[in-house]
Amino acid sequence: MACSNVSLRPLIARRTLQSLLHRSPCIRLWSGCLSAVLTSDIVFPARKASRLVQHRSVLNGNRRRSPVYPGDYFLTRGVSKGVEAPVAAMGVIPKPPVARKVSHVLETHGDKRIDDYYWIRDDERKNPDVLAYLEEENSYTEAVMADSKDFQESLFQEIRSKIKEDDVNAPLRNGPFFYYTKNLEGQQYTVHCRRAAPGGEGPGHVDEVMETGNGASEEEVLLDENKEAKEHEFYHVGEVKVSPNHKLLAVTEDFTGDEVYSIRVIDIETGQSVGNLITGSTEQIEWAEDNEILFYVSQDEVHRPYKVWRHRLNNNQSDDECLYHEKNEEHYIDLRKSESEEYIFVYSGTKVTQFVLYLSSNEPNGDMKPLSPHIEGEDYSVTHRGNHFYFTRRSEEIFNSELLVAPVTNISAFTVLLSHRPSVKLENVRASRDHLIVNVREDGLQAITIYALPPAGKSVESLSEGQKIKFPEPTYSLEDESYQFNSHIFRYGYSSLRTPQSVYDYDLNSGKAVLKKLKPVLGGFDVNKYETVRPWATASDGTRIPISIIYRKDLVKLDGTDPLFLSGYGSYEIPNDPEFNYHRLSLLDRGVVFAVAHIRGGGELGRKWYEDGKLLRKKNTFTDFISCAEYLLENKYGSKDKIAVQGRSAGGLLAGAVLTMRPDLFTTVIAEVAFVDVLTTMLDPSIPLTTVEWEEWGNPAKEEYYYYMKSYSPQDNIQARDYPNVLVTGGLHDPRVAYWEPSKFVAKLREMKTDSNLLLLKCDMGAGHFSKSGRFDKLKDFAFTYAFVLKTLGILPSINSSNL
Question: Among residues 382, 384, 383, 385, which one has the least CA distance to residue 393?
């Protein structure tokens, strides 16, 4: 298929087909280990999101000059919700920045909107007036929070002290090696390593342990990210893939935070680069079985992943061959390898329609061929084992998906193995040599069932009775992990709001589960101090909404006086499952009740749950969240004067929407990298991924969608009224939610609001959607946010012993 390898301009990676869009939260994946996700409270085990985890991976400074202000500053308690206007302790806090107004008229369907802050948009990020305004906002934020600087440092050290800095993740056996990652004390980034495994190719057994003492095989360092990061203000490794013969390492690297990846190949024995650098790629790479060909993805000028390329080592990138070009501007593509490693799969689709193409990885010089039907409204995913492909198919009628099987030699001869169930969502299907691993979701909870398969070569017409894995807690989160296909061992990750991240190896034959790694929590952490509950709120239309709650039993009274922190997401069919996070302990150990609202638009309760929170039903997401907040207050899980709410990315839209809908309900609102100018963004096809997201939000070129989106878009619903304390964040190089969205929102909110509560913008001038790249730098962001929350909720003492 002819296509030109041109316009490999700055691209956006880290996006799988259905979930990782530019307004989606972060996923940090190191295959073969379970890493704590420090940038989000969201885990992505659903089928749509787990496509990234299904990859057969083997493993997984100073930003700006701070202005100087005279004196030190603090805030005292008072104004609406009990927070007074800022006053000075030793000096005067500068007045909040006032962005200049330049009238800009936006007209659609005869409706005129005036955007006085449209000028803040600068696609090149070089306009001196824009940069000066952002710096002014940052300076104001720094000045207002100066009194909490020592407390922020204390919080940072407190969070950091709970993390075992010198730690090794659970080694994963792959053929003749154990592959693993580790962190070193005082170092920000990951080190990728391996050791030779006894017994050659394995596959090993469930109780097998990698020896590290005397007589153990020597550790090989494959990639030390700390060394690479020294030369860059921002550094992030996307995927790390070892070649089938275990001699080469392919790495994707982002050096700016804009999710533009370069690909390099390293000779493991010598540590030297092999061949030529590939630039302008997405994060996704896959090896052919010949150890000489790499497959990767590029994007078009609006950052839509649209071409798959074949690259031969030692060739120039200009000589690469385009295997597939997706010309439908509403489709985007995803690349991965089957667990069996026999096929390369290319997915092309939207949120409603998806089809699959394939190529034998043992015959990598061939062409991509259709594997699944391409039918509008039908969504296919596939895995492979032996003589069969296993498909999940979803349609409007089969909304929670069904499982099909077809012979490799007759891919259209489908047989149904698991029929559609309206109350059970089929999320993900993976294969091993002798088993199918099936992930489902029922009543908001995940489950894994193992099905034994007949010997390879035999026909598959039905499944035997499945073996369901049991979990110890009533609410929890599961995470897909890499595992060895030619083995009877399956690996999964487990955690809950109070149980740290754990990695288990599961014997598919015997049903024995062995804990391989429990992330240590230092500082005297005692799981028995914490209580988790899962009540259900009732939405305005009568729908029951689950809420996951955790608190410290010895600190919380549950009498309506406790501070409450409520988080939510509710978009892209991504489930916001209850998982453990180190940084959250700094809230819980100060008597804060932490809750997650599992609102419509997410994927917690199946496909219908998602569909009832998108397009012309999107406002259900926001009213559900408000109903959850009201339920928690009415049932005395928190104080009406001490309730903070938080959302990130599309969750930032949630935070902005509930802020404008019910500003009286909240004390503090945190809107991180917030997608708040919905209408303007979705009317502009030149903005990355706008066209592919019309199926999520709607296309406002259609009048019905225009006025519906206008009714909730936060930027269009700011009024002259009192608002709570607000912290809004953004990243200058964020390609998913452009920095100008949170910036314009703050400028207009500051113009219109009638209260004296805090309104701060924190724009990271050296990072993108996922904040800073170093693990400790991210902790500093959490410390800042939590200091703002505790300050505005009246928990943080000021420098002169006043309550803040």
Answer: 382
Which one from 649, 713, 743, 771 is the annotated catalytic residue? Answer: 649
Cα–Cα distance for residue pair 178/167, rounded to 1 Å = 16
Helix and strand numbers (H, E) in the chain are 13, 42
79: left (phi over 0), alpha (psi -120 to 50) or beta: left
Integer Cα distance of 732 and 735 in angstroms? 9
Alpha-carbon span 268 to 596, nearest angstrom: 44
Q: What DSSP assignment string belongs to 473-528?
A: SSS-EEEE----SSSSEEEEEEE-SSS--EEEEEETTT--EEEEEE--BTTT--GG
Contact by Cβ (8 Å): 90, 719: no
Specify whether the CB–CB gap between 286 and 295 falls below 8 A.
Answer: yes
CB 108 within 8 A of CB 683: yes
* Cβ atoms of residues 164 and 520 within 8 Å: yes
| 769 part of the active site | yes
- Distances from the Cα of 304 to the Cα of 326, 572, 682, 688, angstroms: 10, 17, 15, 7
The model's pTM is: 0.85
Distance of CA 620 to the CA centre of its chain: 22
Phi, psi of 297 (to 5 degrees): -125, 140
CA distance 429 to 447: 12
What are the mean pLDDT values of the chain's consecutive 10-residue runs (804 residues total)?
Answer: 35 32 33 33 30 27 24 29 37 82 97 98 94 96 94 94 94 94 91 91 84 91 93 89 98 86 96 92 95 94 90 96 95 95 97 96 97 97 97 97 97 97 96 96 94 93 94 92 91 97 96 96 96 97 98 98 98 95 95 98 96 98 99 98 96 98 98 95 88 93 98 98 97 85 97 97 72 70 95 69 28
In 87-162, alpha helices (H)? 128-144, 149-161
Helix ranges (DSSP H) in 221-340 = 225-229
For 6, residues 6+ apart whose C-beta sits below 8 A from its C-beta are none
**Size of the chain, expressed as the number of residues it contains:** 804
341: left (phi over 0), alpha (psi -120 to 50) or beta: left
Taking the C-alpha atoms of residue 400 and residue 396, their distance in angstroms, rounded to an integer, is 9
CB 252 within 8 A of CB 238: yes
First-to-last C-alpha distance (Å) of the chain: 64
734 catalytic per annotation: yes
Q: Residues 770, 236: contact at Cβ < 8 Å?
A: yes
Location of structure tokens 């379970």:
34
From the list 544, 545, 628, 548, the residue with the least C-alpha distance to 593 is 548
- Cα torsion angle, 397, 400, 403, 408, sign: positive
CA 66: distance to chain centroid?
30
Sequence-distant (6+) residues with CB within 8 A of 678 are 653, 697, 709, 712, 713, 714, 715
Catalytic residue selected from 254, 488, 769, 773? 769
- Between the alpha carbon of residue 662 and those of residues 620, 655, 712, the distances in Å are 14, 10, 12
Is position 320 annotated as part of the catalytic site?
no
- The residues, any chain, with a CB within 8 Å of residue 685's CB and separated by 6 or more, are 302, 691
What value, to the nearest 5°, has the Cα angle with vertex 757 and ends 752 and 758? 95
Walk me through the domains of the chain, giving residue ranges and CATH numbers.
Answer: 47-60+164-518 (2.130.10.120)
Residue 203: cis peptide before it, omega within 30 degrees of 0: yes
